């Protein structure tokens, strides 16, 4: 009986500690996102890109502003397809009531325009193909999975408390190949956003 109580106390402690930990990650992630937005508004797009990616590594479900910021910054970095995917996601999530709706539509139009131009050019210059979007050069062949934050496990709040699930993107290894990581940055893999 006592043993059971002790076990329950530890389980309870474990859950509140991990909730606490997630709170800190969330706070740091949001502050990185804000720093990234500031860098973007200051015209430091490479720095902003770095900050946004660090922020994604920390945050659970990404807030909808992230789709706007990362999408717009991708436009400034001439990654037009990536910009289109994220900005479209923002508009889909928030609709016309979104705080950044007008800007999102503006940058979506610009990205579509620029993407179309490059596509047309590529048709003419078949020799230099596949230059439409810059590929992110990973520092090593594997990258920490930003969806499960390298843990290999996704925690979802279910009806009966936390539910654990092996990360469907990285598996239990918690790592993505550089190819998969680029798909993620492109907005084509595991883009889970909160629609608060
Ligand atoms: Zn993962």
From TrEMBL:
The name this protein goes by in its record: Tetratricopeptide repeat-containing protein
Organism of derivation: Reichenbachiella agarivorans
InterPro entries: TPR-like_helical_dom_sf
